[in-house]
Design a protein that fits this description.
Length: about 270
């Protein structure tokens, strides 16, 4: 089937999943939407995140994708079941794949989770991890200052290293052997996170395991796999500044990317 894999995120974080799709499944076509005008989702009320996710899912279904990936941990935590009930195609989240990868990597069972306020507050990672093993010791930390750094394209700046070091200070003495990057924006900051945590802590990028799950679904449901040769045509959309989005996307994917801006009519909340 030559339909696209649709991938959505609150902003540019889902590009970490896109890059893994390009690496692991280079024959597949992608249609991506980053809700950059309304990022970050982490501080927003769950019902607002659900509404935003519904809007984007409805938009992406216009392209008749064969699968939808919620490449946003906050959206996965609060909206995954809702979206699955509304569409007839497979819907993949990023939390359970990340949890599985962390348990496989952990040697001591002491696993850390960093994420947005919404993801950490939801307890979704703790639930997913304890479904695998009740004996795990889990330490979670919200890092609200990290997503804005990535969305601004400042993830390689000296400021990023300082903010990461300060944000992760509460984890320094926790003796974690694995740390789940519980936000798809965080792999942009993998270098400063690794330095802050030290060599004894392995970083878990949920994007890699998520794409393995995508691949497994495509293999199991043979009618979904792409069968024709040819270079796939990828589409990228955002709701905010397309120039910044295009610059970050082109740099992260190491290829020139065009992007279109979709303007949402956002109702006043409150």
């Amino acid at each position: 089937m030559n339909q696209a894999i649709a991938i959505m995120d609150s902003g540019v974080g889902g590009l970490t999943v896109v890059r893994e799709v390009l690496r692991q499944l280079p024959q597949e076509q992608i249609v991506y939407f980053g809700d950059t005008a309304r990022a970050p989702y982490g501080p927003r009320p769950p019902e607002e995140v659900v509404r935003f996710t519904r809007e984007i899912a409805e938009y992406l279904t216009r392209y008749k994708p064969k699968m939808l990936v919620l490449a946003c941990n906050t959206a996965t935590a609060v909206a995954l079941d809702d979206i699955r009930s509304r569409v007839e195609i497979p819907v993949v989240g990023v939390i359970k794949p990340g949890a599985r990868a962390a348990v496989k990597a952990s040697r001591t069972g002491r696993i850390g989770v960093i994420g947005t306020e919404g993801t950490v507050k939801s307890g979704a990672y703790e639930e997913a991890l304890r479904e695998i093993s009740a004996q795990l010791e889990i330490v979670s930390l919200a890092c609200p200052d990290l997503v804005p750094l990535v969305e601004a394209g400042e993830y390689e700046s000296p400021l990023a290293w300082e903010i990461v070091r300060r944000s992760l200070a509460p984890l320094q003495d926790q003796k974690l052997d694995s740390l789940i990057l519980g936000c798809t924006h965080y792999p942009f900051l993998a270098a400063p996170i690794a330095e802050a945590m030290g060599p004894s802590t392995q970083l878990i990028n949920s994007a890699e395991e998520t794409v393995r799950e995508i691949s497994a679904i495509l293999s199991y449901q043979e009618d979904l796999a792409k069968r024709e040769d040819g270079t796939p045509l990828h589409r990228f959309f955002c709701s905010g500044d397309s120039a910044i989005f295009r610059r970050i996307t082109s740099s992260w994917l190491n290829q020139q990317v065009e992007a279109s801006t979709i303007v949402w009519q956002v109702p006043t909340v409150g």
